Structures are given as C-alpha cells and as structure tokens.
Amino acid sequence: MGSGHAHRLHLHGHSPVHRLPAHTKLVAVLAFVVVVVSTPREAVWAFAGYALLLAAVARAARVPAGFALRRMAVEVPFVAFALLLPFVAQGGRTEVLGMQLSVSGLWGAWNILAKGTLGVGASVLLAATTELRDLLLGLQRLRMPPMLVQIASFMLRYGDVIADELARMRIARESRGFRARGPRAWGVLARTAGALFIRTYERGERVHLAMVSRGYTGAMPVLDGRAATRAQWSAALALPVTALAVCLPAWTL
After folding, report:
1. Residue 13 main-chain phi, psi, to 5 deg
2. With 50 as the cut, is the pLDDT of residue 1 above it?
3. Per-residue pLDDT at 34 exceeds 60
4. Alpha helices, DSSP H only, in the chain?
5. How far apart are CA 202 and CA 165, in angstroms?
6. Closest listed residue to residue 30, CA positions, set 243, 234, 230, 226
C-alpha cells in the first residue's frame, strides 16, 4: 500500500516527531486546525502563539525553515485572494499607505492569511515527518471508510506511473516535430488526453484482474494493528492541547 519511493514532501529523519504513529499525528493536526479556525480573528497575539508552537514542532522534527516555506507555496492563490479583499469588500474605510481600504476586508484578509498559513504549515510538517504509506495506514487505523483509503492508496501509487506515461507521450510527439503553438495544436492535445484516458482505464482493469487473481475481495488487509501507547498520544496531543490553552483566553479577554 502506497508508493514505492519517498514523496518530495517527506523529509527523512529520526526525530521524536518522525517516530510518532501516523494516526496520532493525524488527530493532533486535525485538532490543532480546529482550534486555530475557532480562534477570534481579533486575537492577533493568539495566532503568534500558534506560529511559535509550529516553529517548536519544526525544531523538534529537525525540519529546516526553507524546506517548509518552499512547500507552503501552495497557498499562494489564497494569499492573492486575501490581498484583494480590502479593495473589494464593503463597509467602513480606513487609509493605509495612502489607499482607502475596507476595514472588514482588512480583517477578512488577515483571517484568511493567518488561519490558512497555520493550517498549511501544520499539514506541511505532518507530510514532512510522515511517509505517505504511513499516512494511509494511519487513516486505516482511525477507521476511515476502507474504500476511501483504497482510492487514496491507488491514486498515490499510480499517480507517478500516469505522469511518466504522459511524459513518454510528450516526447513521442516532440520527436515527430510537434510543437504546441496556437489553437491548431488543441486537436492533437485533445487526442493525447483521450489516449491517456484509455491507457489509464486499461491499466486499471489489468491491476484489478491481478488483484482478484490474488484473492482480493473488496477489502485490503490491515497491515498495522499496533496501538499507540499513552506516552505517544500524550506527545502528539501536546500541540493541540497547548493551542487550546492559548485559544480559551482569546475568547474571554
């Protein structure tokens, strides 16, 4: 189950965070994100505390800041959307650097940036300290619907295979002098997509027949039946519990 090689999001290591069972880290990250999302946007100091907590986890996991920041670039579209809010939102206006900006838009932009960045940062740390195969086993351990776990497993396992197939098709086109320039190339690209779909469908049928011939009945065997110890749960839940201790005063002050 899972791919046969490490994903680029994963950083191999032997830190205490790496050694925690995957299902405990999944629960911890989910709980942390829930706490962050439920924090009032006006409690700016609370979000600074959450950032310090993530920095402490990154330090314990020996994840370099550059490694994490490069992989957090996935939130750039959300950042662009947030930056537009002060200009398009309605309500009272205030002057910032000579520009008239919406007060509610500024708070909305801050809300998206702060909570989105913290959520993405927590997810990046989870992926950096947990292999994809272990994440799938963690979902299995948490009693996620087996069919969803299997779909995710095959998607991760064969995503690179399909990407390699597409790369070979691109090389074959270019070796015959094809260059994607203008609308005239759209027909060729459409036929390429159709051929890729047919090849993917046929590969899926072959994989399914191979699994059935080996005894597959619709459910994958449970490969990891070990339960996490109380100490491991305590270590994993230290992040969301500490975040909750920061969140509660944010609602009362």
Report:
1. -170, 175
2. no
3. yes
4. 16-19, 22-37, 44-61, 65-71, 76-88, 103-129, 132-141, 146-175, 186-213, 230-252
5. 13
6. 243
Which three-class secondary structure state does DSSP give residue 146?
helix
Average pLDDT of the chain is 86
Residues 6+ apart with CB under 8 A from 91: 102, 103, 104, 105
Predicted confidence band at 4 (pLDDT cuts at 50, 70, 90)?
Answer: very low
∠ CA 214-218-224, rounded to 5°: 80
Sign of CA dihedral 42, 43, 48, 52: negative
In contact, 223 and 1? CB cutoff 8 Å? yes
pLDDT tens, 61-73?
A: 999 999 988 888 8
User: Amino acid identity of 215?
Assistant: G
Query: Under DSSP, is residue 38 helix (H, G, I), strand (E, B) or coil?
Result: coil
User: Quick one: CA dihedral 135, 140, 142, 148, positive or negative?
Assistant: positive
**Quick one: tokens of 132?**
């994809």
Per-residue pLDDT of 76-85, as tens digits, reads 888 888 888 8
Q: What are phi and psi of 234, to 5 degrees?
A: -65, -40
Residue with tokens 């036929």: 191
Nearest to 140, CA basis, from 231, 21, 6:
21
Strand partners, 100: 95
